[in-house]
Amino acid sequence: MSNQSIFDLKGRTALITGSSRGLGRAMAEGLTAAGARVLINGTDTCRVAQTVAEFRGAGYEADAASFNVTVEEEVKAAFEGLDAAGVAVDILVNNAGIQYRKPMVELETADWQRVIDTNLTSAFVIGREAAKRMIARGHGKIVNIGSLTSELARATIAPYTVAKGGIKMLTRAMAAEWAQHGIQANAIGPGYMLTDMNEALISNPDFDAWVKGRTPSKRWGKPEELIGTAVFLSSSASDYVNGQIIYVDGGMLAVL
To answer: Is the pTM of the predicted complex or chain greater than 0.85?
Structure first.
């Protein structure tokens, strides 16, 4: 097998949650460029349809998979629909996520739960449904999206931090149970990235200066800089990599 072919995703179908914009879209673009068919997910059906149209216009194979990742019935129905259509999900990227900033003493339980449900529980539910089918086929790739907060806490984002810490351990739990079935479950931990979710931070001069000063690369990350790691973890190149989280953070976690 050549060095190039082990990264080839031709003939594989990838479901990327939260992929109509931001990091999810960037990773979807990378997987399609590597040859995969992608299923674009989101709750805004118009934006999902527009994204699919743009992918197809660029010559990529893409289809819509509009469902709410926090509603178990919708997740199950989506997979049953794929089963009926003869579509097998070879690669699952659990990317959907939200942020909510508030000091813990002011944090309502409902807001805590909303972040946990979106950022952590959805990865379990969707991962479970995908794995049931991957186990039957004897292969599959699951890529969960963690964060710097999978390792380090930051004030005012407790539910996000807890969810992303959970993603790290969920990834290991998946490896513990599913590696024997030919499934590789790993995670990516992005650093501070130039995304819509971080717009308020990017436009804050003090925070912008802190990120650039704290990161050895002296800059924010670009969404497309996740593509290489996403393709690696989705391809045959990572067939003996399991239960790991790879940080794409410009070196931030490596230094004091």
So the answer is: yes
Choice among 60, 160, 192, 247 that is catalytic: 160
Contact 183, 173 (CB under 8 A): no
pLDDT tens for the chain, residues 1 to 256: 455 699 999 999 999 999 999 999 999 999 999 999 999 999 999 999 999 999 999 999 999 999 999 999 999 999 999 999 999 999 999 999 999 999 999 999 999 999 999 999 999 999 999 999 999 999 999 999 999 999 999 999 999 999 999 999 999 999 999 999 999 999 999 999 999 889 999 999 999 999 999 999 999 999 999 999 999 999 999 999 999 999 999 999 999 9
* 66-76 burial code (b ≥16 CB/10 A, e <16): bbbbbeeeebe
Per the CB < 8 A criterion, the answer to whether 166 and 123 are in contact is no
Residue keyed to tokens 């963690």 = 146
Burial 197-219 (b: 16+ CB within 10 A, else e): ebeebbeeeeeeeebeeebeeee
Q: Which of 90, 112, 109, 92 is nearest to 101 (CA)?
A: 112
Are the beta carbons of 24 and 190 closer than 8 angstroms? no
Residue 240 is among the residues annotated as catalytic for this protein: no
Rounded Cα distance, 222 and 26, in Å: 9
Contact 120, 147 (CB under 8 A): no
Whole-angstrom Cα distance, residue 89 to residue 49? 19
- Please report, in angstroms and rounded to a whole number, the separation of the first and last CA atoms in the chain: 41
Contact assessment for residue 22 and residue 225, using Cβ atoms and an 8 Å cutoff: no
- Name the residue with tokens 């590696």: 179
8-state DSSP, 240: T
Count of residues making up the chain: 256
